[in-house]
Amino acid sequence: MPAHFGPRPFSTKASGWYRDVTSMVVSFVTDREQLGRYLPSPFRVAEEAVVTITYACNRQVDWLAGNGYNLVAVSAAADFIGEQETLSGDYALVMWENLTDPILTGRELQGIPKVYADIQDHTVLHGDWHTSASHFGHKFLDLDVSNLRDPSEDEIAADAAARLGRDNPMAWRLYPGVGGFGESINEYTTFPSENRITDAWVGEGEARWQHLSWEQNPTQFHIINALADLPVLEWRPAVVVKGSTNLVVAERLPRVIN
Amino acid sequence: MPAHFGPRPFSTKASGWYRDVTSMVVSFVTDREQLGRYLPSPFRVAEEAVVTITYACNRQVDWLAGNGYNLVAVSAAADFIGEQETLSGDYALVMWENLTDPILTGRELQGIPKVYADIQDHTVLHGDWHTSASHFGHKFLDLDVSNLRDPSEDEIAADAAARLGRDNPMAWRLYPGVGGFGESINEYTTFPSENRITDAWVGEGEARWQHLSWEQNPTQFHIINALADLPVLEWRPAVVVKGSTNLVVAERLPRVIN
Amino acid sequence: MPAHFGPRPFSTKASGWYRDVTSMVVSFVTDREQLGRYLPSPFRVAEEAVVTITYACNRQVDWLAGNGYNLVAVSAAADFIGEQETLSGDYALVMWENLTDPILTGRELQGIPKVYADIQDHTVLHGDWHTSASHFGHKFLDLDVSNLRDPSEDEIAADAAARLGRDNPMAWRLYPGVGGFGESINEYTTFPSENRITDAWVGEGEARWQHLSWEQNPTQFHIINALADLPVLEWRPAVVVKGSTNLVVAERLPRVIN
Amino acid sequence: MPAHFGPRPFSTKASGWYRDVTSMVVSFVTDREQLGRYLPSPFRVAEEAVVTITYACNRQVDWLAGNGYNLVAVSAAADFIGEQETLSGDYALVMWENLTDPILTGRELQGIPKVYADIQDHTVLHGDWHTSASHFGHKFLDLDVSNLRDPSEDEIAADAAARLGRDNPMAWRLYPGVGGFGESINEYTTFPSENRITDAWVGEGEARWQHLSWEQNPTQFHIINALADLPVLEWRPAVVVKGSTNLVVAERLPRVIN
């Protein structure tokens, strides 16, 4: 929307490529039952109840004519249990972005639960990486990664193995009816991407959430507080990655009988 | 979305009231045929082919916990021709806002074609009112109102008469399918509001558009250029209004057989 | 600076008037000795060791061509003890503003210790007023005023009396030499203004500071922490004021022999 | 300022290093006489009347705790004619930055004529580099570089030769007295830096200025219009550079008898 001006004209310069992406990835093991409360029924928490928080500084984005934006995504390792098939991947709990354009296309074409936040460009200070996210002036997240080193051969192999058959981001595309009543759309999606890594380091990371009130963030406080309440049983190694990403067209997951 | 955290908890302090709204309203008569190209079939350009550009500085918005935002809306005087009934009002061509939260709810609950822009707080300088809108650093609109005076009795009466049976904002709620293919939702809506005016002045106004390229605004240039190309046959008196607005729940317009 | 393009040309529309100013004023009694540490020698903490925190939403500023900005000022009730004369007023401890232009003129023409912060437009929600200030993504101040009522006759009279001979904002204009060595300028100033109040209410207010680290705010953390450490012995009644302000030309205070 | 909280405490992590700097440099030959109008008397336009426009995307700035900012600097090739010595370099005509903190230190410690602008992060799209600068919502500069290639051996040698004895940025540190009357400081400075280049390309560049009115940019329109009026006799090859920069302490140039 608006649709009456015709489809958005695409330049021959547009593509799915994000040509300059820098990411900080922090993950932790949490309580399986508590995490499971936030997964709709065709999804099940994966064998390991891992929550992943990804900050990405996206630059040189072709479809945005070379402009960029920052995002903070939170996902849960999960299996989609379809009627006849199962898909293992990461279920999108929420994705904050600091630019409205990809929020709209992500919500509407892919069903990704994107919302807005002011996300600072990451800082790097003597090897310590940091970013934070706020909305309406109230900070809700600090993200730190430090003590970076090159990954070992074993880590590279383990990472490659872990991605095999698991690198499927998934989401729940749910639109209410006009005025908020009923449902207009209710389906599940997967939105794969192709990633080329030029640099990767392993280190220690941490995410620190701040509980907020309705008065402080009336549209997102319940999301933030739910995430802040997830217990951290164990921090996993954090990762910093540089490279590029090509968004592939999203697909609808097979319909399930709930 | 995200839906898995449950419905957004509403505070008892939330309501539909925008308690402090300042608006500049500029309108002009344009070419009927050219304007008609942007109205989907159940809509017809009204007897007078009037395009209205409304800037609003919304403050003290209850559902945003007292926060606010600015908007620039462009609409066409139009009649909705249903199978059995007709509704006269203003068809939403596009609405720019400088806050993502109301963009999402407006698109998803009401079908309003909202997109993002940096919209300056209006300036007032010795009776001259001004604002402008940009995206990705490129300005596309300047809006001016000046020579304000109190409205005459006749103008007040004419305005009241004009609103009778015409104060219906309408929109086309069209969502594509996953990945952008096909359609998930295709319907028409109306989203009435209750307005309380505390101050109103009449003056002269003007909107100046800048044509932009895909490189300058890859997501909106076709919208901006279409509006910039509408001929201005005659500027109507401009209006500055202060007051408050209560958003009423949007409704679906009766289905039509296209 | 730059000076080589000649003096900034003034429009006939420019003046010292800020035509639309909304302020929240919160003040408290603190420890006299601790506050005194931050006053240079010709200043002495006033009989009552009162610190005042003023948020102002400045709009329709003539010299900015009708644009506006927000500020948060912190000042100490103080007496300037000159060789031959004494001036009672408020010594400027720090002033945050969210626009660079008045920061530069305020520092350079008046010696006001202005620095930058992201200062939210104030929210008003069912009678509760709020704003906050952040820099580099880290919030350092929340300011609240609530339970507003009309001032009593006695309060109006007491306020007028208190202003008599005390309404003198003062500052220390200190510039280092090139590279930061030595001093280029070292003097004291006063920068009076003319205020026209259209509305005023009295209520309860509170300022909540957050201690920050160098990593969080490398240019201001020492200021913020000093203010956060001032003990609050008693909150004074808070005030919300609407009106306009005319900046009068700043003056140098009589030289003192230190 | 403020000075009463003591000197800004420096972390051991602070230094003069800007560890991640990406620059677009565009220069042109202009009319010698017209350019000379903007140089104060001890400066003389260099043999070639070259104006250089530099955009820099500064990241990982140590003294800002790893934060960064963008700048657009305009300088004139010039010779400082002292009583006993001459210094060849680039005289700072104006420097826009999108962060107030370095604007204050640059003006006050070095005398650089820094002012604020919204400066877009540069975009890169299929080899075309672009940025733009605005203030108060009104764009005043577009900067483009394209057709980049590796520099030739000759170009590298010529560049090194040109820098020999010429790499001296210089400025006029002029502060008025309190209230704007008279002068408090009037001197000339040089502010050298150490640059490490990791990547460099040569291409074609262009700067496009927009004339603005006082109403559009009341604090800078005279600067912008003066620069927009400089005739472009010939564009020089443009350069894109990546690397790091270490700010060295600024020095005062030898006093001259005007």
From TrEMBL, chains A, B, C, D:
Q: Which Pfam families match?
A: ADC
- The residue stretches assigned to a coiled coil in this entry are none
Among InterPro entries, the record links this protein to:
Acetoacetate_decarboxylase, ADC_dom_sf
**GO MF, any single term:** lyase activity
Query: Can you say what this protein is called?
Result: Acetoacetate decarboxylase
